[in-house]
Every structure is written in C-alpha cells, then in structure tokens.
Amino acid sequence: MDGIESFPGTAPYGTGERDLLQAVRELVRADRSMRRSLSRRMAIGETDLRAVRLVMAAARVDQPMTPHDLAEQLGITTASTTTMLDRLCAAGHLERAPHPTDARSKVVSATDHSYAEVRRHLSETHDRMRAVAAAVPAPARPAVMAFLGALTEVMLTEGDPT
Length: 162
Prior knowledge:
Strand content: 5-15%
CATH architecture: Orthogonal Bundle
Largest sheet: 2 strands, antiparallel
Radius of gyration: 19 Å
Helix content: 55-70%
Shape: globular
Distance between the termini: 30 Å
CATH superfamily: Winged helix-like DNA-binding domain superfamily/Winged helix DNA-binding domain
CATH topology: Arc Repressor Mutant, subunit A
C-alpha cells in the first residue's frame, strides 16, 4: 500500500491500523488536490492561496496579520512575501493598511472580493463536508477527534518546527 508499510525493526501493523492510516493519507491527498484546484480557479498560486487563507483565519479571531507574521507562517523570506503581497493586492485579494498600534508596520487584510471568491468556489464543498461531519455519530466523535489529534501531534514532531 503506497507508503503504508512496516519498516524493518518496527512493529507490524495490527488489524485495521494500515486501513486507518491509508484513509488519512487519502484525505491528505484529497485536501491537497482541493487546494490546487481552488488556486487554479482563483487564478493565484498555491502559496498565494495559503496566504489569503491565513489572513482570513487571523481576521476570524481578530488577530492582526502583518507581512512579517505571514512570512513566518508561510516559511518564506520577507522579500518573497513583499512580492507576493504586491501581486495579491494588485489582483484585489488583499489590502495593506497601517498597523493600529505600530506605526512602523502594516497589517494585511482580505478584501470583500477575496471572501466572495472563496465563498463562490468553496461554499458547496464546505456544505458537503459539514454534512459528512454531521453524519458521524455523536458518541464516536471524541474517538475520531482523539485519533486525528494524536496523529497530528506525531506528524508535527516529525515536521519542520516552524
């Protein structure tokens, strides 16, 4: 199975473990495919789309997003971030404004156009995903959440700490 194999010196997979991990792998692939498709439909690059999503996520929790914050979260240089922001602002997806408490900095926000584009391309998909989540029996949800959370922790400890 595509990368879901026991390695020499490791314990073999038990009944169903391989299937669970394969399902997660397929979910990750589907997520990547969905994001690639969205970036194509919005006519922006995948990193640009990640930037727009990060800016929108920060706005949902009233957290100002600076170009420096964006560079750190995307793992790119500040020079690359500036070029990307120039491109996204010119395309009408993001806006820069003075930082409310730091005169030396700027904050980045998503435009109404960008929110409308994301809604236009993803609202049906999100509704369908919400329906799938709603179909998980309430008693099973804690176990699903614990499994996904623990798997996320394992993967984060192996990934880039940034």
